[in-house]
Amino acid sequence: MISSGLTFGIYPLSAAGTPFGLAVGPDDNYEKIQFALRDLRDESKKLLLRNYLIYTKEWESRMLSLADHYLDSGLLGDLTIGCGDWTQYQDSDIELNNWLGFIRKVINKYGSHLASIQITNEPNLSFMEGSKPYILQALVEGVIEAKKETRERNLPINIGFGSVPQSSAAVPHFWENLAKAGGNIFIDSVDFVGHNFYVDVFEEQPLDLKEIPTSVERTLRNLREKNLIVAGIPSSVPIRVTENGWPTGKNPIANIERSYEHQANVLETIIRTINNLRMELNISHYVIFGLRDADSSKEDLFHQFGIMRDDYLLSP
Known about the structure:
Structural class: alpha/beta
InterPro entries: GH
Organism: Clostridium kluyveri
Radius of gyration: 19 Å
Distance between the termini: 44 Å
Number of strands: 12
Protein name: Glycoside hydrolase family 5 domain-containing protein
Strand order of the largest sheet: 1-4-5-6-7-8-9-12
Mean pLDDT: 93
Oligomer: single chain
CATH superfamily: Glycosidases
CATH topology: TIM Barrel
Order of helices and strands: EEEHEHEHEHEHHEHEEEHE
Helix content: 25-40%
């Protein structure tokens, strides 16, 4: 059944993934995070918190410790399990049994605290997870294993996978290859498809505010009416906008200052456009990236995605 309204979520921490590693800054302040989340929730009791674990065999124990920290801090809700260190190009094998075992461990230990698990974050982005030759197998087998484990344990966790829009940076023929690798068991295991997209962020020329709705609609229609059809995923499977944001600072290409006021206007325009499309395209969630800047003193876009500064203030 299609929801009558969007479910909102947010990435509550500060570190941001980049093609070169992590953008980081001042430490997260968990007391201030909780104050900010309470303000965002207002009278609503539902604001899903999206966090990430990135699996490699070497990082497994560190990731489980990180999940413990999320739990202790009250920040578990929607969990994305990515795979592979995208900065290490010699990483050519995921050791499938270890990958699936990690997914089971996460479900067994944290499943009662989770509303959803997304297997892979950006598997069709060529310089991130999509650079891994094993990514389709990890995605398909991971989704199937996660759904099997949650069913066996009678846990009401939605299972999905991630994606980004088609572009010159996307993996060619990803959706066709997913259709070949998937099959009925895989399709039956998918509860949602996550989509990360950033309007007016990576373009060479800034968009006028009135151009934003067209860009948003084109992105979501391409996913629903082209990509998911190619992959064999039915329209009954909801789309979740799992990462969306608009950074302040300076546009690194056009060298134009990006103001806090314009950030608010762009994000409101995007959200209203998605809300208008939610019934027709079966869009269930909108998740903003993220709560605060990684480092407000750095002008590059990866450090200034937050709707708050790194000191948890809304303006300087």
